[in-house]
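Narrative of activities, Objective 1.

The group set out to show that a structural description can be obtained from nothing but a protein's sequence at a throughput compatible with the screening campaign. Below is one input-output pair from the validation batch, recorded exactly as produced.
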Amino acid sequence: MNLFVCIDDTDNLDSIGTGALLENMMQEAALQGLGRSGFIVRYQLFIHEDIPYTSHNSSMCCTVETNDRDAFTAFCADYLQSNAAEGSDPGLCVLTDDGALDYTPLVAFGKRAQTEVVTKSDAYAAANAFGNDVRLSEHGGTGGGVIGALAGAALRAGKEEGKIKGKLQPLQNKADWTMADFSAAYGVERFADEDGKEIAEDVTIRYLLPTKLMFQSGKVTAILVQKDRIWMPKPKVKKNKG
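Output recorded for this entry:
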C-alpha cells in the first residue's frame, strides 16, 4: 500500500535537521525491507511567537510504498523515539495514500497550520475524523510535532505546493538541454515560470548553476527564468548569515 509519511519538530540547533532525519529513517526502513520512499517535500508552517520551533517551522513529508503498514509505522515510531534530538517534541503522521479518500478536511487543517496558531487538540480532532487512515503519534517532549506532522502529510496529500529537499547540481560538461533530456536526467515532470505558470513550449534549457525543485500541481517542477532570451533553472542563491 502507499502512504504519506511526515515528521516534525525532531531537531535542535545542533542536530542534523528534520529533513535529514527523515532521509536517514527512510534509508533504514528500506534496508530492513519495510518500505521504499520517494522524494521529500518541505512545507513551511506558520511563524508566530506562540509556536515553538527551531529555525524555520517546517515539516518534512515523503511517500512510501510498503507491504506492512503496521510494521512500518512501528519502525518509524521507534526510530523517532531513539534518534530525535534532545529537547525536541517529535510528531509522526502516517496517512493512507488513496485516491478514493477525500482529503479536503485534512488539507483545510494543513492550510490553517500555515496561517494561524493551531493546537494538538485541533490536530487530533482532524486526524480522528479519518479513523485508521491516519496514524498520528507523539515521540518525546510535549509531542507538539504532531501538529506539523499532520499538516505536512495533509498538504502533500492535497498536492499543495512545497519545496523538494536537496539542491540540484548541474552535470559537468553539459550546459544546454532539451526539456525531454532534462526531465529524464533529473526526474522533472513539469516546467513553470516564477509565477507558477506552466511552460508548455519546447525550449532549450541552459543549466549552469545549482537550483531547487518544487512540488507544484502534484508534480516535480523545475522553475525556469529567462535572461537574454535564454531559459535556465532559477539559481539557488546562498544566503549570507549574520
